[in-house]
From TrEMBL:
Enzyme Commission number(s) from the entry: 6.3.5.1
A Gene Ontology cellular-component term: cytoplasm
Domain of life: Bacteria
Protein name, per record: Glutamine-dependent NAD(+) synthetase
Key words of the record: ATP-binding, Ligase, NAD, Nucleotide-binding
HAMAP family given in the database record: NadE_glutamine_dep (MF_02090)
Pathway(s): Cofactor biosynthesis; NAD(+) biosynthesis; NAD(+) from deamido-NAD(+) (L-Gln route): step 1/1
GO MF term (any one): ATP binding
InterPro entries (alphabetical): C-N_Hydrolase (IPR003010), C-N_Hydrolase_sf (IPR036526), Gln-dep_NAD_synthase (IPR014445), NAD/GMP_synthase (IPR022310), NAD_synthase (IPR003694), Rossmann-like_a/b/a_fold (IPR014729)
NCBIfam families per the UniProt record, alphabetical: nadE
Length: 670
């Protein structure tokens, strides 16, 4: 046996927050030392933060990152530590993993495959490193001392243990670096990552970690970022350590910690024997000069049992509902504290969207305290003096969550009751501002100006929109008074077809559910009402029964007279069908006729004429309302169906509107 204790650490970093990031790194190193770890893998770009965007073009950012790296060195005595930072060479910027051993920089591995799809934009800032290339780079420290280090496609022999790297995206491609590292008899692959959360993504990560470990006959450490780092992407953490195709440690996900270290004892001799048994062909490896030799002595240790985390919620039959609750809670918490906001304000209509957001704010407090404890939760919000004396979740909720129901003559007792009961259930502050007089004043003002009376027969959309818009000033005023963050309540299904009033229900500094479809939101609300989440595996479930007042309704904007019995689906189409068209048209890039043919198979209960009408309506509304999507407040990225044009789904503001394709659909007789 050749036993070595290794670890991966997840870090909750913030772009360009140098002292915060450095302290998290040092704390993780010290925690790993307490656990008697010899080799520690930290996440990708952990010194600068992953989401620096165009700040990566700043010379000052690179200089400061190198200064911070040197400040961390004294904390690495008798350890092997991987640290991520950008590095410039020949006027190109590279995403690198620096290997530090016993207070000394040893070299920099440069990322070969850059993530450039969807929310990722790495090719804008970084250059991919060419395979099999290695150079020496000279670095000057703060004292003016110059030293040369290897940079490129390299690996290491550290005290007789061969260590290689796959940096995040490197492991997601077919020609992953591990395939070449295998030829060098690598013992351990480290994967420093910044892999954002998406529903069920953990299973994909486990597959490439396990398959890489099995196929390459190595140990494998995967270390990820944690939390809402830069605003849109939320990282779920979840360290993975495998050896020869078997998971030996799994770290907790979606916690509220600043750092979390997960360790395991691996047997290097066992991994080598797995390679020996699998190999039938031997080729003399080339590029031997890419191996950097370093002396290091590993302590004698004993075997340990695997640390396979057994969180019940990870195995829940309602995994997506559990993930949504936890990722929203963490995302809201980090966004609030990193923006120094003193809570949240929501225009609570009594409908599904605003009720879901209000509940998520409450879960932020409840899950945060369950994750790190009451005192640490308050400590991380030390700038909010109003909560420091609070002792319960409900006390804190009353100070951090503010809601307002703003009815007109077209609002119903049903939504009024729902809004009041949901606010009461989560102990939020609840106000009621009757805005009917303001709505009428605007109507009279415009009627007098244009010389005619406005009516529902001739001015339906303007009369609806003005009601939504006059709600904005008062709710913004509440947010300003409280120094809190106003949350926009529009969802993805509405964003797809522009079924939202700009400067009305889209008002806010953050739009947390703009990436989530309406059908899932309604499903999640029913889950939270009737099932709920398991409190730390105790089989005691937390629910919000008051959501029955929301779930019993048909979604409605309540902007037309009550006798019209307005519903969202009457205005648009059934939400599940709308989401199916959006998935086919936007995610899968199908043309109108192709969407129609797919829908015929999926929704045989509707007539062909009705399906044609809905498909045509979707494409027309999609094209007409791109300008609205461009103006949405930043939203959380939670899956591959996001419509955010700034990070995921670009579409021209002005376009031909699929006119040719819609004529083809209309003429189709199948």
């Amino acid at each position: 046996m050749k036993l070595i204790k290794v670890a991966g650490a997840v870090l909750n970093q913030t772009p360009l927050a140098w002292e915060n990031n450095k302290q998290n790194i040092i704390n993780a190193i010290e925690e790993a030392r307490k656990q008697k770890v010899s080799i520690l893998c930290l996440p990708e770009l952990c010194i600068t933060g992953y989401g620096c965007e165009d700040a990566f073009y700043s010379i000052g950012v690179h200089q400061t990152a190198m200064e911070v790296l040197h400040e961390i060195l004294p904390h690495t005595s008798n350890m092997v530590v991987c640290l991520g930072l950008p590095l410039m060479y020949q006027n190109r910027i590279f995403n690198t993993a620096c290997l530090v051993i016993n207070e000394q920089i040893i070299g920099f591995v440069a990322k070969r495959f850059l993530a450039g799809n969807g929310i990722h934009y790495e090719p804008r800032w970084f250059t991919p490193w060419p395979e099999d290339e290695k150079i020496d780079i000279t670095i000057t420290d703060k004292k003016g001392n110059k030293k040369s280090y290897p940079l490129g496609d390299i690996h290491y022999n550290v005290g007789g243990v061969k260590i290689g790297f796959e940096i995040c995206e490197d492991a997601w491609v077919a020609n992953r670096p591990g395939r070449k590292l295998y030829k060098f008899g690598i013992d351990l692959i480290m994967n420093p990552s910044a892999s954002h959360f998406a529903f069920s993504k953990l299973d994909i990560r486990k597959r490439f970690v396990l398959e890489g470990s099995r196929a390459f006959g190595t140990a494998y450490i995967y270390a990820n970022l944690l939390g809402n780092e830069a605003g849109r992407a939320i990282y779920d953490g979840g360290t993975l350590i495998a050896s020869s195709g078997t998971l030996v440690a799994v770290g907790e996900r979606l916690t509220f910690d600043d750092y979390l270290v997960t360790s395991a004892v691996i047997d290097i001799a066992e991994a080598r024997m797995a390679q020996a048994q699998a190999s039938t062909v031997f080729n003399v490896p080339d590029m031997q000069d890419t191996c950097i030799e370093v002396d290091f002595t590993y302590p004698q240790i004993l075997p340990e049992n695997p640390q396979i985390l057994d969180n019940p919620w990870e195995k829940s039959q309602y995994l997506q509902e559990e993930e949504f609750a936890r990722v929203q809670a963490l995302g809201l918490f980090d966004y609030m504290r990193k923006s120094y906001s003193k809570g949240f304000v929501i225009s609570l209509s009594g409908g599904a969207d605003s009720s879901a957001i209000t509940c998520c704010c409450y879960l932020m407090i409840k899950m945060g305290i369950e994750s790190i404890g009451l005192e640490k939760f308050k400590q991380k919000l030390a700038y909010i003096k109003e909560i420091q004396h609070c002792q319960t979740v409900d006390e804190i909720a009353h100070r951090l969550i503010t809601t307002a129901y703003q009815p007109t003559e077209n609002s119903s007792i049903v939504t009024q009751t729902a809004a009041r009961e949901v606010a009461k259930a989560v102990n939020a502050k609840f106000y009621e501002f009757n805005i009917n007089t303001i709505y009428k004043e605007y109507t009279y003002l415009i009627s007098n100006a244009i010389g005619r009376e406005l009516s529902w027969q001739t001015d339906d959309i303007p009369l609806q929109n003005i009601q939504a818009r006059v709600r904005a000033p008062s709710i913004w005023m509440l947010a300003n008074i409280k120094n809190a963050l106003l949350l926009s309540t529009s969802n993805r299904s509405e964003a797809a077809v522009g079924y939202a009033t700009m400067d009305g229900d889209t008002s806010g500094g953050l739009s947390p559910i703009a990436g989530i479809d309406k059908a899932f939101l309604r499903q999640w609300l029913r889950w939270l009402e009737k099932v709920g989440y398991d409190l730390k595996g105790t089989e005691e479930f937390f629910r919000i029964p008051a959501l029955q007042y929301v779930n019993e309704q048909q979604p409605t904007a309540e902007l037309r007279p009550l006798e019209n019995k307005q519903t969202d689906e009457d205005d648009l189409m059934p939400y599940d069908l709308l989401d199916s068209i959006e998935e086919a048209a936007i995610r899968d890039k199908k043309m109108p006729l192709e969407c129609y043919i797919l829908l015929q198979l999926k929704y045989p209960q509707y007539t062909k004429a009705q399906l044609k009408t809905w498909v045509a309506k979707f494409f027309k509304l999609w094209c007409r309302n791109q300008w609205k999507r461009e103006r949405y407040a930043p939203s959380f990225h939670l899956d591959d169906k996001n419509l955010d044009p700034k990070t995921w789904c670009r579409f021209p503001i002005l376009s031909g509107g699929f006119e040719r394709e819609l004529r083809e659909l209309e003429a189709y007789e199948g």
